[in-house]
Amino acid sequence: MSGIDTLPPLREVIAAHGLSARKSLGQNFLLDLNLTARIARVAGDLSGADVLEVGPGPGGLTRGLLAEGARRVVAVEKDARCLPALEQIAAAYPGRLEILNADALEVDWAAHLTPPVKVVANLPYNVGTELLVRWLTPPDWPPLWHSLTLMFQREVAERIVARPGSKTYGRLAILSQWRCEAKIALGLPPEAFTPPPKVRSAVVHLTALPAPRFPADAAVLSRVVAAAFNQRRKMLRASLKGVAPDIEERLRAAGIAPTDRAEQVSLEGFCALAREVAKP
Ligand code: SAM
């Protein structure tokens, strides 16, 4: 199922409902429905999935998701001004769009979704990284969601897919790549948005792996990686001193030189270190 809907053009929707973009809510809207359909297609076949969309705004991406055949879309929008525009979309796709007027950081979205679940969002930049980290660190793995297709500032997208040795390699790369396949699917210039943001954007696609690439306790790994990259220019024997008093021995046992810096250590290396740190 594909094709643009028969609802009014988004510029008309925005004018009709007085949806002037608010910076405080990270509002940069996508008005080109061909582009929103393209973003929806990055998430793959949606026909058998419930889609969680955070921050639908006037509904450009929501319309793309529904036109591309999503079984259901649950859209969480904080700005009540957007509700009439979203309700118009719900009426055009009976029974397929549930709108939650809520803060995505507080709502119990899982209660509204039936697996398989795909998350697709042009995220508000001010809460994007926080939401990603929450989605990547659920209590159980595999998570409720099957994939995440998310718009970020290009710089954040690069941190998600970064490899060891690069300046952007850090906690976000490790959290993302430990239990997901992560790639940048699409780059977008500022002019793709209304109003245009100052920076370039990119759509990242993450697919949940059935199990982590390397064994490690999630909380220990997270603690080790946070400490290592918090002082990324220091040698690990110094930056990780607070993690364990005998950290040099544990680093060696994990096959890591205590004089190495965080950005030299692979994902496999950090997992080995987390296992060593977890030992009594
Ligand atoms: N998806 C729309 C599009 O592509 O045109 C709008 C994207 S805009 C970058 C981000 C949207 O997220 C805005 O509609 C904003 O009101 C909403 N938003 C901001 N903070 C939010 C939060 N904490 N919870 C839910 N929605 C939020």
Task: Explain what this protein looks like in three dimensions.
This protein has 280 residues and is an alpha/beta fold. It has two domains: 10-208, 3-Layer(aba) Sandwich (Rossmann fold); 218-278, rRNA adenine dimethylase, C-terminal domain (Helicase, Ruva Protein, domain 3, Orthogonal Bundle), CATH 1.10.8. The chain contains eleven helices and nine strands. A seven-stranded mixed β-sheet has the order 4-3-2-5-6-9-7, with helices on both faces. A two-stranded antiparallel sheet has the order 1-8. Strand 5 (117-122), helix 5 (125-136) and strand 6 form a beta-alpha-beta unit. The longest helix is centred in the C-terminal third of the chain and has 13 residues, at 218-230. It is elongated. 41% of the residues are buried. The structure holds S-adenosylmethionine (SAM). Residues 25-30, 54-57, 60-61, 76-79, 82, 103-105, 122, 124, 127 line the site of S-adenosylmethionine (SAM).
Characteristics of this structure?
280 residues; alpha/beta; Rossmann fold; Helicase, Ruva Protein, domain 3; seven-stranded mixed beta sheet; two-stranded antiparallel sheet; 9 strands; elongated; binds S-adenosylmethionine
